[in-house]
Protein 1
Amino acid sequence: MATKAMSTGVGLSDFPDLLKVNYHEEFDQGLTEAEKAKMKRIDIYRSNPSDPEDIPKYVSYYINRDECGPMFLDALIKIKDEIDPTLSFRRSCREGICGSCAMNMDGRHHLACLCSLPDNNEKSVISPLMGMFVLKDLVVDMTHFYAQYKSIDPYLKRKTPKKEGEKEYFQSIEDRKKLDGLYECVLCACCTTSCPSYWWHPQEYLGPAVLMQAYRWVIDSRDEYTEERLEAIGGDMKLDECYQIGICSLACPKHLNPREALSNLKDLYLEHKEKKEAEEGF
């Protein structure tokens, strides 16, 4: 049960949008102030858009740091299992492979399973990925992100059929090495939701995660749709809205470099565009 900081008679419509997330509650764990002082405080964003009476808010929980694992995900699981079972968040592999537990922790987008919980009793804050519609608490709607990923055809495309008896499309060691730093992306959307350009134009701009994967297929020596792929991402704001700000690379929990990948992709598209214009006589 949470101890509300404001009257229960206050309705959602009584608050301007900017003030809604400043609404704060403390979950009643039956702790004294002395006990709280010895524990780690974690403020977690709570929201249930399907409930018109629900007010988006931060709820404070206290955990014993000595009885919790080292990562933010460990703290979330402990809170859900032992304190408040109504808390909602995504998680799966716990190894930084699935990308499910992406969220904002202490001001930085990261994977909760890879982000260490500060080894102190100072307050930590957990909130959903920025710029995404919240389904409940820390769970955001990834539908649009996945639709954008699907739009780049993220799979090998060939025009030449395999020869009789051929089982694989071979690739040199040098060409295979070009894919390092690209294929490891787990599509967690930390980079995309950290990008100001994506905040401004999420419908038009594909974002760093999707564009880095587009680049991964453009440079794959086994793929035979390079020109078509470049044509598909050109024009409008799909690629051009990248201004090389670089926050995407700072945000990546896998230590990849989407900023560099997008820079290379923009160069390849420019070459494609100039070649096309020359062939058409412009």
Protein 2
Amino acid sequence: MQSNLIVLDSAKPVTHKKIIEAELHSFGIRINQEPPKVKFVKKENGGIGYQEIVTQTKGMSADAARLVCKEYKISCAEIILREDITVDQFIDVIEANRAYVPVLYVFNKIDALTIEELDILDQMPNYVPISSQHKWNLEELMEEIWNRCHMLRIYTKPKGQIPDYDEPVILHSATNPTVEQFCNRLHRSIMAEFSHAFVWGRSAKHQPQRCGKDHVLMDEDIVQICKKV
């Protein structure tokens, strides 16, 4: 999953963040939220079926669900709530046109803030402070973006040479990438001659570890491919 950046001026009121969030919310964009765990299926008959898997404490009830459905001219539906949600979240489910967007707030110009003001900002989730002018904290920003993209850097190591740290092979961690996927990313013909691989790094039980094609790699592993003799 990719993360979007919203860059804000640290020297200006934090209320600007609230204004941006309110604007995006009015357009159906839900920042740093997951879709509600609600099953909602329209039916031809049978009335409104309502079931709570989780106790509702934020305003949802059978009556509230039926009232909302009436507003949308829905007379028959199956509703199962698998988490505690608000009525607004239930409306989002019925509308079925909301965008759930991960966002990282980047507060620039932190060189204009006091330590006390920075401490206040540090209580905020999903945020990284930087100073583009002085190039402060840019490494942390890059690392945070990298982590949110769920990507892995895998380095190649030709036999008898040092690893190539300049051009890593990029794989997505969500797929639990294997040595075979790594080889295919390099070239589709490699697996036809593949014998085994030596792997250094966090995924290896010892350094190096002799591995087959199904070995799952981790970020910043080093891989040396050995062909059949």
Protein 3
Amino acid sequence: MRPAPVVRTRQRLRRSTAMEGVLYGGLPREAAKELRLQPQGSEEAKAFVSAFLKRSMPQKKDEAIQDVLTRKAVVLEHHCRRRKQPKRRKTKTFTAKQRRELRLFEIEPEQQRYELFLPLHELWKQYIRDLCYGLKPDAQPQMVQSKLLKADLHGAIVTVTKSKCPSYVGITGIILQEFKHVFKIITKDNKLKVPKMNNVFSLETDGFISYIYGSKFQFRASERSAKKFKLKGTIDL
């Protein structure tokens, strides 16, 4: 036979009153002397416990605290206030239109001189040697080509060997800027800009000659470094 609901409530009340008696009861005199505490009455003990619970559970009201105490055990934890994280301010950058208006990537005419960029070419040669493990004579050509495909070409000397436009064939110069569709090359005649499309460029590094097919090379330098190139038997202009 299951007890009726009235019997259940009576049992809960008896348990709660018994717990209150234990909780708010005074300490024995001998224990108080050993702990060097002053004995308190039941009213003082209730006031202390209620104040302690308010500090331990500041988010709950008095009624909620009493309701929790009469129904189940409470595990007291240290209440940590959450620190408000400061909002990160996004750095403002120039748009492509603003960069074009400010001409950030344009080289001034007085600075378009071939001899000014020869030190850049020397730096590039040292960079390629370090990238290709010294470019020793016994180095594998496929390894050199795979490194060049993802390398930074700013400062490299290239020559147009094949082109659908005959006037481009034979142009040799230092790559100053690389865009998606254009190499900005400065020649000994101090001229700039050669498109990648329909052009084949040769690049020599310590005896290793590599060919760049511009039509298959139309990527930005940042995109090329993460691009996976596939080997092909024949490539058209």
